[in-house]
Specification:
alpha/beta; 2 domains; 23% strand; globular; Spore Coat Polysaccharide Biosynthesis Protein SpsA, Chain A; nine-stranded mixed sheet
Length: 261
């Protein structure tokens, strides 16, 4: 099949081989764009048959687009290293005549997991994303955070990407605390946004209410409650850190503002 699979990586030694092998079921080429991993991601990717290109991390959408000029095929299928193709999606891709379709891309449902548990509440399913597209017609929006492919002339497929998002509850809390809240706070600060003493509580409380009561977390049992709480925790920390940046010059000076990403 004339499809190029593309993956962006940073220290994904535990995931990269399985991701490449998943793509190879429908792709005749796999490209990995690596952000100078400190583990053996690059070595494993090359052994698994992928072409690897190294580039410092420049943000989500910008990084994903780096592979497109290297792709030999017009059609591109983009996965993160912790994502896999479902059997239904593999079958859908194999039976599609991409040479004759009028669509520029296909939106796929993403099935998010905590451990082996498929979580459907809090807008975790169906989580439609355009991941299969013509590189001459579409690409990722050049955003540094939460990038997406526009849905112009695309079709929604009832087929899933499997996203093994978090291994357990500890990771659900530690990943946002380590990465997303600090990154989000830096983005807000650089944009000149301001926080007050109530901001962390208001944003954190609103995030919990919306996800637990309005987005079905209350119907998701323990997973729904813990996920809603983790989202709220991340929102609280983002604004608490923004407030800290405003109030404490020593904290600002200790941050590396050249490496927000």
């Amino acid at each position: 099949m004339r499809i190029t699979g593309v993956i962006t990586t940073l220290n994904e030694a535990d995931n990269i081989v399985a991701c490449i092998q998943s793509l190879q079921q429908v792709c005749d080429e796999v490209i990995v764009t690596d952000s100078y991993s400190q583990d053996n991601t690059v070595e494993l990717a090359r052994k698994a048959g992928a072409k690897v290109y190294l580039h410092e991390y420049i943000g989500d959408g910008l990084q994903k687009n780096l592979a497109l000029p290297y792709a030999k095929n017009r059609w591109v299928l983009s996965l993160d290293a912790d994502e896999r193709l479902s059997e239904e999606l593999i079958e859908e891709i194999r039976k599609t005549d991409f040479d004759s379709t009028n669509y520029h891309g296909f939106a796929l449902r993403r099935r998010n997991y905590i451990g082996t548990r498929w979580v459907k509440c809090c807008r975790w399913y169906p989580d439609y994303l355009v991941r299969l597209f013509r590189k001459d017609k579409l690409q990722f929006a050049e955003l540094k955070q939460h990038a997406y492919v526009p849905t112009t002339n695309t079709c929604r497929w009832k087929a899933d990407i499997l996203h093994y998002r978090y291994h357990n509850y500890d990771e659900l809390f530690s990943k946002p605390e380590r990465n997303y809240s600090t990154r989000g706070a830096k983005i807000l600060f650089l944009k000149g946004k301001k926080a007050c003493a109530l901001s962390p509580w208001l944003h954190g409380g609103a995030a919990f209410f919306v996800n637990y009561f309005l987005r079905g977390g209350i119907l998701g049992g323990a997973d729904g409650y813990v996920l809603s709480k983790a989202i709220a925790h991340n929102s609280f920390l983002k604004y608490a850190k923004l407030l800290e940046y405003q109030r404490d010059e020593s904290v600002r000076d200790s941050e590396d503002w050249t490496s927000v990403w």
